[in-house]
Amino acid sequence: IPEQALDRDCMTLSRHVLQQLHSFGAEAQDLSAIMNRIALAAKLIARRLTRAGLVAGALGFTGEMNVQGESVKKMDVYANDVFISVFKQSGLVCRLASEEMENLYYIPENCPIGRYTLLYDPIDGSSNVDININVGSIFAIRQQEGLDEDGTASDLLQNNGRNQIAAGYVLYGPSTMLVYSIGTGVHAFTLDPSLGEFILSSENIRLPDHGSIYSVNEGNFWQWEEPLRDYIRYVHRHEGYTARYGGALVGDIHRILFQGGVFLYPGTVKKPEGKLRLLYESAPLAYLIEQAGGRASTGTQEILDVVPEALHARSPLIIGSKDDVALVESFIQDRARAV
Ligand code: P6P
């Protein structure tokens, strides 16, 4: 095997994290260990997804409703439990906040030594699971502030997204990819199943300032405010735009990260806050996209400046190339250009 191929196969996730963290000191070891646990969770979930169609009872609904009022998929529960299990053994994470759990899950044996909180959406886009279309996991790491003795995790509701120290996602697609940032750029790893390792495949990913893709569910057109409809009319009428929408956030964001453009999940007249959750969907992705030179906005405020009112608070999301996010904002903020 040529030497460079061997070197490539040796740039594993844990080695890369440690390399990035040379200036982080003790935190470096912690973050490297946490990222390793996330990689283990990703491998366990990827394995289950790959065989879901063959394993009795792996697919379909549990019959329960989650805190979001959504029907729970068996895969949602499995993936949520995987994250809990891998972090129980980690000694590092004291609290887990998940889309699938109404309240935080505490790991007492790790508290208060475990200074970190994991916020995650274990399987995002689970409506795609039964039809074998890509889904993802989204995660963010924050440092716990205070001892949280009353178990209300009030520190999470006093800080904005700039309190995140790491964020990323796993894309379960034709290949399983883990994309992360710890504040030193955005890096992508591809799972090599023959090694059982995530190997570095793209380093220091940068978004172009503009891209041709706009990614939004136009089925909601008549539920939007007029300025947003004007934006859609603008991209319909102007050359150089193309629509791509997969209905699963991680895959849609991954496309924007690599090809540029803008993803939108705006609010509607009835639900001005939109559908996506701030703490474990919009904020981690905003952290990542900003690290790659892009932007993420609610339409009127940077996502990373938003302080959540509640654990499962939602926020509108406009995210991607900075010029394309700015164009959407110019319509929403009524500075619309001539259509
Ligand atoms: P809609 C999946 O249910 C999800 O939470 C995201 O993954 C995705 O971006 C969005 O909802 C899709 O919502 O209303 O377009 O089906």
Report the sheet-strand fraction: 15-25%
Largest sheet: 8 strands, mixed
**Radius of gyration over alpha carbons?**
20 Å
Show unreliable segments: none
What's the rounded overall pLDDT mean?
92
Write down how many β-strands occur, each being a DSSP E stretch of 2 or more residues: 15
Apparent shape: globular
Order of helices and strands: HHHEEHEEEEEEEEEHEHEHEEH
Helix content: 25-40%
Widest sheet: strand order? 4-3-5-6-7-8-9-10
Task: Give the count of helical stretches.
Answer: 8
Structural class: alpha+beta
- The multimeric state of the shown protein is single chain
What hetero molecules are in the model? 6-O-phosphono-alpha-D-fructofuranose
> Span between N and C termini?
56 Å
Task: Describe how the helices and strands are arranged.
Layout (H helix, E strand, L loop, with lengths): L2 H8 L2 H8 L5 H26 L9 E5 L5 E3 H15 L4 E6 L6 E2 L9 E9 L10 E9 L20 E9 L3 E6 L5 E6 L4 E6 L10 E3 L10 H12 L4 E2 L5 H11 L2 E4 L12 H14 L3 E3 L19 E4 L1 H11 L7
Parallel strand pairs: 3-5, 11-12, 11-13
Antiparallel strand pairs: 1-2, 3-4, 5-6, 6-7, 7-8, 8-9, 9-10, 13-15, 14-15
Helix pairs in contact: 2-3, 3-4, 5-8
This protein binds 6-O-phosphono-alpha-D-fructofuranose.
Describe the structure.
This protein has 339 residues and is α+β, with helices and mostly antiparallel strands. Helices cover 31% and strands 23% of the residues. The chain has helices at residues 3-10, 13-20, 26-51, 74-88, 226-237, 249-259, 278-291, 322-332; strands at residues 61-65, 71-73, 93-98, 105-106, 116-124, 135-143, 164-172, 176-181, 187-192, 197-202, 213-215, 242-243, 262-265, 295-297, 317-320. The longest helix has 26 residues, at 26-51. It is globular and about 55 Å long. The termini are far apart. The structure holds 6-O-phosphono-alpha-D-fructofuranose (P6P).
